[in-house]
Amino acid sequence: MPIQFSVNGQPVNLDQKDQEMPLLWFLREKMQLTGSKFGCGIGQCGACTVHLNGSAVRSCLLPVGQLQGSAIRTIEGLASGTDLHPVQQAWLDEDVPQCGYCQAGQIMAAVALLEQVNDRSEEQVNAHMSNICRCGTYTRIRKAIKLVAAKAPPET
Length: 156
Hints:
Elements: E1 3-7, E2 10-14, H1 23-30, E3 49-52, E4 55-58, E5 71-73, H2 86-93, H3 103-116, H4 122-128, H5 138-151
Parallel strand pairs: 1-5
Antiparallel strand pairs: 1-2, 3-4, 3-5
Helix pairs in contact: 2-5
Protein name: (2Fe-2S)-binding protein
Organism: Bowmanella denitrificans
InterPro entries: 2Fe-2S-bd, 2Fe-2S-bd_dom_sf, 2Fe-2S_ferredoxin-like_sf, 2Fe-2S_ferredoxin-type, 2Fe2S_fd_BS, Beta-grasp_dom_sf, Diverse_Oxidoreductases
C-alpha cells in the first residue's frame, strides 16, 4: 500500500520502496522543493526544519515511511500567493540573513514557536530556537521574532 500524506496541502502517494528515504531528500529530489537545506545530516543544525502536523522537525532524520496521514509544511508553503508570511516579512524588515543558508529552517522554527508557544519570553524563544546559524545572526533573528510576536500576541 502506498504511503499517503500531504506537502503544503498537496496530496502525496508514495511507493513503499522509498519509505526509508529521509523526508529532506524526498522534498528536494522528488518534489523539487529545495528551500529546506542539508546541513549536518544528524538533526543538530536545523537547516532542514519543516513542520510535521504543525510542529517543527528536522527532516534529515525523518523517514517518509513514518508520515502516513501527516501534513508537512515547508518554507515554500508559508506564503499565501504573493503575500509573505509575517515571519518571512519580519526577516526582510530586520535584514536577518547574511549567507541565508540556514534561514528557511530558522523561519520554520520561528513560525512553529509563534504558532504553538503562548509564553514568548526571551527564555522560551531561546529554548525553542535551537537552529544553528554559522553567520551568527541570532540577534536579528530574535528581533524579527519579537517584531512578529508584538503584532500578533498569543491567544489566551
